[in-house]
Design goal:
elongated, transferase (chains A, B), about 450 residues, DhaK_dom (chains A, B), 13 strands, 13 helices, 2 domains, six-stranded mixed beta sheet, glycerone kinase activity (chains A, B), alpha/beta, Dihydroxyacetone kinase (chains A, B), ATP binding (chains A, B), homodimer
Amino acid sequence: MALQGKKLINNPDDVVTEFIEGLVETYQGLQYLDGFPEIKVVLRADAVGGAYDKVAVISGGGSGHEPAHAGFVGPGMLTAAVSGDVFASPPVDSILAAIRAVTGTMGCLLIIKNYTGDRLNFGLAAEQAKSEGYKIEMVIVGDDCALPPPRGIAGRRGLAGTILVHKVAGAAADAGLSLADVAAEAKHASEAVGTMGVALSVCTLPGQVTSDRLGPEQIELGLGIHGEPGAAVVELQTVDVVVEHVLKQILSQETQYLPITRGSNAVLLINGLGATPVMELMIAARKAVPELQLEYGIAVDRVYTGTFMTSLDMAGLSITIMRSDENILQRLDAPTKAPAWPVGSEGNRPPAKFPVPVPPSPSMKDDEILSERQELSKQGCMLEAAIEAAAKELIDLKDNLNDWDSKVGDGDCGTTMYRGATAILEDMKTRYHLNDAAGTVNEIGSTIRKVMGGTSGILG
Amino acid sequence: MALQGKKLINNPDDVVTEFIEGLVETYQGLQYLDGFPEIKVVLRADAVGGAYDKVAVISGGGSGHEPAHAGFVGPGMLTAAVSGDVFASPPVDSILAAIRAVTGTMGCLLIIKNYTGDRLNFGLAAEQAKSEGYKIEMVIVGDDCALPPPRGIAGRRGLAGTILVHKVAGAAADAGLSLADVAAEAKHASEAVGTMGVALSVCTLPGQVTSDRLGPEQIELGLGIHGEPGAAVVELQTVDVVVEHVLKQILSQETQYLPITRGSNAVLLINGLGATPVMELMIAARKAVPELQLEYGIAVDRVYTGTFMTSLDMAGLSITIMRSDENILQRLDAPTKAPAWPVGSEGNRPPAKFPVPVPPSPSMKDDEILSERQELSKQGCMLEAAIEAAAKELIDLKDNLNDWDSKVGDGDCGTTMYRGATAILEDMKTRYHLNDAAGTVNEIGSTIRKVMGGTSGILG
């Protein structure tokens, strides 16, 4: 029997409404419209009731992309978010309900990802709202860079770049701009942004079985955010190679998707697709920044690394690049209370490194290097051989030790021992007074404390 | 051949230093000490150089728990974080380097998770720092509630509750309190917090093979954050059942781990273990809040839902409860620039729901219910039978349609059709004028628009 994907959920039909209830329990500034299960709208608690005096910015679409879109509702970003069922566009009535709930005299901007269902439903809701007397503008985001043109009638898909458009529009609205000006800034931003993703696993819909489309050593390039198959399946690579490839696609001179050339400024967004650890996202950011700066001559003004626009429980990431200018940076840096927008990425960066402070006294022996190697005594030679044999044995045992340790602990004993043994072999060449056996034992202890960490290190 | 866990990394030995480089690229207020690979210390760029005029708060431990601990460095929280290798305590020298880098005349509080390696390494570093003239205090956090006492010589493990202790101590330090007072607040917080976790998958160490310890329909209760086996393995349950069980363990009257009784106030932290989608975390939060309030009589003051203290790529979550009082709430609500601390959970909650706005005119027919059913004509009966047959056919085809759709799209076509067909059968009983075939077709369209969403809905 094929197994359902393992998820911490209740009834698969209730995942979206239950998500919204939990979101609103967590964030005090959010409310939802009392229209479950059809109407699934999250809004700013301080912007309801028709008295909102700024341009309302509304986005949304199918669910399964959490924290998008509801996690980006807050002062300075979205005024409301409309959720459909998982991977299904929200119906017209719920979009209308959101518009009616938060739109005041300044009007409302709808930011829509470029999918047929979203364009139709949001478009019809906009027409209906206009007929009710609301001022409405729409901006469509299609930031996908995975497929070369022509891309069929549907055009480029809307991906994580949409989040940056939300931020620009939300900050512009918060600054008190008119609907036309907010829409113009959002459109400008949407034309300056490109995204491409890479997946390690296929997402599983709630209550459905997990696909075996992707082999255990394969990754998918240029995927959509609804589990659509990607543009290509390749063997798993190091993240550095993956990042290089994705940046090359986004910045391709052939497709010319992005108005970015050598000398441009840009911001970078590294987005986890749902099941990607923060560690891996940061490792990708670490590669992308110098790659953009050194290989493409692009100045990276800001880096946003985190989980923004997901595809349920998919492992993998997408990279988004947006050309930046003074005004866009000001909008991106503007404060917001939207819970899922990252804190601490704004402003300019000081140097990344700071020198290690020197100890107050030169008493520590760790860094001493023997200026000249003494002739080894016979005893010294034996000690050297013994240490070398023991260290090499530990190095050979690495995998076995890890294996045994994983039965009772965290499975890193072999790796830790390997690190210690390697450092001992290294330091022995330059730092150990091998003719003095007792001194050498102390020196080994110092090496171990320096590199091994964990409990073994300190007991050494 | 056993396969390595799929990860977006480069050399497994470099994951920690590369994570730190990416983190510092992302957050402008952070720096790291230039001592790679041995010294892995992230610090506030504005607190270095020995001139820091508040109590420095330092934490750390093995890596693999990202964003902890480095993601919690920032004004109002940690002053520096010391990282060891994956799941290995940092060596004494790197802890000492962190202390020397950020400690001024007010002194330094070390917050340590209760593991043997951390206690030894941080403890020795503290002694060494004191001998260099620094004022140092230590607080140990052991918030694990999974195992009943006695728990062996090592005692209760430090888990995600440590993050709340960081926040309390960081805010107290930021308020200008003395080292003794900051340490007292941290100790008070550490004694009021309890945590228990549940895992859907076992974590995989970088470069190692994935464990098959957990079957495809099993979950593990009461796990550690280093891949240690949990207290029990059980069949996968709904998240509501899992949350009930975990809360019962944490609040057990038998272990009396937490000083919380009926009538107490508390804060709740729902923590993803690395690969858990935001959707699932929020669904857990949705259950935990009313469960605490209604079943245990505990007032929930704040909810923090997100990814704070992980176990590499483990799927699952932990729940933390901390007894709250005026002072703790003030510390938790105090502003911080630490990137991984959640924004928007502070302050008191307004009502969660807001009524759906009524349309401006009563022209919409959606909500009309037939006051009295007309006798059906022969044609009306035939139409009713035809609609019923078609709808039931769609309902039966749900799984097949999902399956076919997953080959070309997002695999939800069957579910969407099922939802529409079910609503049609429902509305037909009360809303369709079946004697009027053309009218009925319009009414079906209205039903579909209301519930189906997606592209099918709007085309309907």
